[in-house]
Predict the 3D structure of the following.
Amino acid sequence: MNKNELETDCQGPRNVIILQRTTVILVVSAVVLLFVAMALAFYFIPLRSKSTECGELSPATTMQPQDDRKPLAPIPSNHSNISLDAMLPTYDPFLGRLPESLVPEHYDIWIKVYMDEEEYDRAFTYTGRVSIVLRCDEETSIIKIHAWWLKVDFDSVVVRHRGNSDEVALQGVKFDETYQFLIIDTEEPLEPTEKYVIEMSYDGELTEYNLCGFYPSSHKYGKEARWVALTSFQPDCARKAFPCLDEPQLKATFNISITHRPTRKALSNMPEIRSTTTEDGSWNTTYFDITVPMSTYHISFALLDFPSLERETSTGIQFRVWAEPTRIHAAEYALEIGVQMLTYFENSFQIKHPIPKMDMIAAPTFISGGLENWALIVYRDDYMLYDPNQDSTDHMFDVATIVAHELAHMWFGNLVTLKWWNDLWLNEGFASFLEYPAVDFVHPEWKMENQLLLTDVMFSMREDESYDVIPKPIVREVGGWSGELWDMFDSRIYQKGASIIRSLRAFLDEQVIERGLKKYLRAHLYDNVVTDDLWHALTEADKKHGGTDVKKMMDCWLLQAGLPLVTVTRIDETTLKVEQSQFIKDRDGLWEKDFPKDQKWNIPLTYTHSGITDFNRPFRAWLLAEDEYITIEIDDLTEKDWVIFNVNQTGYFHVNYDTDNWNKLAKQLKDDFEVIPTQTRAALLNDAFVIAESGELDLVVGLQLTEYMYEETEFIVWETVEHYLPFIRTVLLRTDEFELFQNYWRNQITPLYESLGWNFTGSHMLDYKRRLKAIKNACSWGNKNCIEMATAVYRQWMSDQFSDSVPQDNSLMESLSCAVIRQGGLEEWMFAYENSDEMDNPEKLELFGLIAESAMSCSQNAWLLQGYLEMYDEMEKLFVASYYMREKSALGFSVAWKFMIERFDELFEKYGNSLYFHIWLFGPFLNSESDLKQLLDFGSRSTNMSDGAVTQFYRAVGRVKENIAWMDKNMASVREWLARVAPETRHQDAGPEYVDFDRLNGDSAKSGTKEKRRHGRSIYDSSNGHHERRFHRRQKV
Ligand SMILES: [Zn+2]
C-alpha cells in the first residue's frame, strides 16, 4: 500500500473519521478534486508570512469538526489565525542590517602576513588591500560596509566609477562601532544601475580573541611551538579579516592572493593558480583562482606548515587533509570517508561539487567542532582525527558524523545559502539530517537511522519540553547585531531541524523528498533562500503524489517552540478518540508564565494495530490545530488488539494511551517484542517514561514496558531507557524499594552482559557502544561477575596506571571505579584520593582526577564520605563532591545533606550567599514530609539570603512538594510492581571469562605508553547518565 492508497481510504460522516481499507474506489474522484484545490490554494499563500495556521481553537470548529472535511485534505483556512508576533522580539528585526542600495559583485583581496620572530615588531599582524565592485540599486550617498578590529587607512579609501575610473568625491569616512560599519559619505549620490569600485588599505592583527576572524594557532613540533594561521568567519567574522559587506545574501566572487613566508603553505577556497617569490627568496605570493559566487562567511584562507595526505575522488576532485606533523597519520580515516561521502552527495543531489578540490584542516584551536568554509573545511583537530592506535572505537562516530555534516554543507549552505540568519535551520537542519545517510553509506553496520532517532529526535524533544531553558522557535527573527547572530546557533536549530526533516521524509515519502530537494537545489544554485522556497519545492514535488501543502503542514513546527502530546483513548471496540495538548514536562512551572501554554499543531498521524502489524505502511490521518479532537474508526479492531500511534516516532510529538492499551503493549513486548520494530520500541519507552515524569501517567506503566528487556539487545532501546533511570533512581534512592529496583535492573541487563562480555576485539562502533553499556550497567547494578572483573582491572590500575589491561575509555573506567569503591575498602578509596588532584596537573593525567572524584563519592563508608567533604577548602570542589555523593547512593546523599545543613554557618563564612544555591540543588532528591520540614526549618532560620536565593528557595520548596505529591501518586503501584517482578532471579551472576582489551584500547595497546591515555578519547559521562561532560584536548598556546 502506498501513501495515495492510504489517503483514499479515509472518509467519514459528520465528526467521525472512518478508515475502511476496502473503500478506496469510492473516494478517488474526491481526492482528485482535492489535489486541484490544493494546487490552487498553494499559489494564494503569501510567502514569508509570519503567522502560522496553528492556533487557538476557533469557536466555529471547536465543538464539531467540519462535516465535509476529508482526512489529509488541505488544511482548512477558515479558522482563526494566531499571530506569532507576541513570541518574536520587540526590536526592529532589521536593526543593524546593511541598506539594500549597494550590492557587491566582486572582491579583490590581497594580504601580507607577518608571523615570525624575525619580524618581531610586526609579528602576528597583516596588512591588506581590498577592492570591491558594487552595483548601485538605489540612489545613495552613504556607503556602509562592515569592518571590525581593522585599522583602515581612511586616506586610502577611494570610490571610483567602474566604467571610466573617475573618482567620486568623498565627504568623510567614519566607524559605527555598535554595528561594526565603516561608513563612507559621498559628495554626490551614487546612481542606480551604475557600478562603483571601492578600494582601501588596512592593517589587521592575528589574535586568538574569540577565535573569530583571521587568527593564529600553535602546535608543538618536538619541543618547539610553531604557528599556523586560520580563519573562522561564520556568522560575522569575515569583517575582522577584510572590509566587506558581511551578510550571507550578498554573494560575490573573490580573487584572493596572499603574501607569506615560504616556510608555510597558503590555502584558500579555490585552487592555487600561480605563485611568485621575491628575489631574495624571503616572501612568496600565492594567487588563487577566482571563486564561484559565495557568501563572505564561506571565505577562508590558511597558512600552514602541516603535511597533508591526498587522494582523488572518483569524479576527479583533489581531496587533501592537513594536520600537524605528529598527528597526520590520524587524518587517514577522515580522508578515506571524506572521499566517499563527497561523491555520495554528488550522486544524491546530481550536482557535482563545483570546486575541483577539497581541503580539510585539523586545527589545534578552533571555535567549534568544524566549519564549512567552501572547499577549505576547518575542524578542531580532535573532531577530524581518529587514530586507531590510540582512540577508542566510538570516536569514529564523532569524526564520521562531523565530516558528513560539513561536506553536506557544500550543497546545503554553500551552494544554496540562507538569505538571513533567521532561516539558519535551512543550513544546519539539513546538514545535521544528511549526516546520517552519508555515514550510513560508509558504515551501514552502524544502523544510522536508529542513531538519528536517538541523537537528534529524542535529544531535541527533551530540550523542547524541558523547563531549564525557555524554548525558542527554530525560525525566529534576528537582527544584525553580533550577539543575536551568535544566539541563533543553539542545538535546537541543528537537532530539531534534522528531526523536522525526518518527519517530512516519513510523511511525504522518501522519493518525494529526494525529488523536492533536487528541485530546490537546482532552482537556487549560487543563490539565497528562505524557508518558503523549500516548502514550495516540496509542495511541487508532492503534487502528483500526496498533494500536501507543505507550508501549511510545517509552519507550526518551525514558528512555534515546544511540542504536542497526542492522547489516544479507546471509546469502544473499534473507535478511538485522538486529541492533542501542548506537552510541558514542567513540574515546577519555572517558565510557564513567559511561554504560550495552549499551542496547537497540525499533526500528521501514523498508526497501526496488532491486527495489521505492518509498520512500514501505517495508516495516516490529520489531527489539525483546529480540531478539539478527532475520532478514528478501525473496522478490524478487536477487543484484544493494541494500537500504536506515531510509528517509529517519525512525528515530533509524544503519544499517551489509555492504561488498557499500555498494558496490552507491555504484554505484546513480553510475548514477542520483535513484532514491534526497534525504533517504535524505543519510542514507546521514551513516551511512557517522559509522560510519567511529567506526572500525566503512572510510572509503573513505563516500568511494565521494560519487563521484556532481559531479551533486548538493541543499543537505542537501552540508551532510551537509561536516560530515564536517573530520574527513577532519584525517586527511589532513599526508599526501601531501591534494593528491589537494583535487583530488577541487574536481572534485566545480565543476559546482554553475558552475551557480549568484555571482548572488544573486532567490535565495530555500535557493538563497542553496546558492550560498554552492558558492562557499565551490569557493574552499576551490582552484577557479581562484573564487579569481580572491575576489581581486577582496578587493581591493575593501582599497580600501573598505564597497564595494557586498563581500558582507555574514561566513562567505562568511571563506572568500574565506582563499582569497586562501592564494594571496596580504604585501599581502593585512598588510591582514588591520591590521584584526585591530577586534573589540575598538566604533567599528569587530566582525566584521571575526574574519574577519581566521581568514584570516591561511591564509597559506602560514612566516615570516608565525611572526610571527602571536609578535605576541600574550595567551594567548587565541595560542590563537585556533594554533587556526586547525592546521586551515587542514599548514604552519600545523607552524609552530604547533613554536612551542608549542619555546617552551613561555618561554610557561609567562607563562601557567602552562593552556597545557598548548592543547598537548593538537593531539592529534586527531597521527596518526603520530613525532607520538606528540614528544608523549611533551614529556610526559616536563614535570615541572610539574597533576593535571588529566596526565589530559589521557594522554587526548591515547590519542587519538594511536587515530589511528595508524585510519590503519593506513584509509590504504591511501584512498590506492588517491584514486589511482583524484582525477587525473581532469572540469571546467575556468571560472566564471560575471556578478556581482551586490545580493541578497546586501540591496536597498539600492547606498546602502551603514557602518551596513550593523554590522547585517549575524552568523552566522559557519569555512570548514571545524569550529566555528560565533554572534555577536549588541552588547548595549546
Ligand atoms: Zn553546520
Q: What stands out?
A: The radius of gyration is 31 Å.
